[in-house]
Amino acid sequence: MDWGTAADSLTAIDPIWAQLFNFYIAFISFAVLNVMTGVFCNSAIKAAERDHEMVIHSLLQSRKEFKDLVSNLFQKIDDLGLGMITISEFERHFNDDSVRAFFESLEMGAVDAWTLFASLDADGDNVISLNDFTERCIQLHGPARSVDLYALTQQN
């Protein structure tokens, strides 16, 4: 039996039944298409999430963008343009709202400039190079991970 025969039979009873039948067929067709589209999109998204190469590329891109942000902050703090930040330069810029907001966004907020400077000065020579600044910001930003905690327990 095709749709036309069923619709004609309903029209013979009352035309409203044929219209309801057509509405029902259209509604069910759209519902089935929506479900199929949802299943297809969901499987495509899951496949993309598992694409290891894409994940690596995304992480590398995020790291590059982060390094660029840190480098821009370093250039802002380095008043003399020597490629090194001293504690006096760091203190002068520490109370700047944009500098503090940057460190807080990295979850590296500190009570005072000295504490944060000491955390960033890995070799303890009282100056921070761009490379040291970038690497320490990468290491220190965010909450402690299990690898960080393990390294800490191995030091003691």
TrEMBL record:
Domain of life: Eukaryota
Keyword set, alphabetical order: Calcium, Membrane, Transmembrane, Transmembrane helix
SUPFAM superfamilies for this protein: EF-hand (SSF47473)
The keyword Membrane belongs to this UniProt entry's keyword annotation: yes
GO MF terms, alphabetically ordered: calcium ion binding
Chain ranges passing through the membrane: 20-45
Span of domain EF-hand: 108-143
The protein's name: EF-hand domain-containing protein
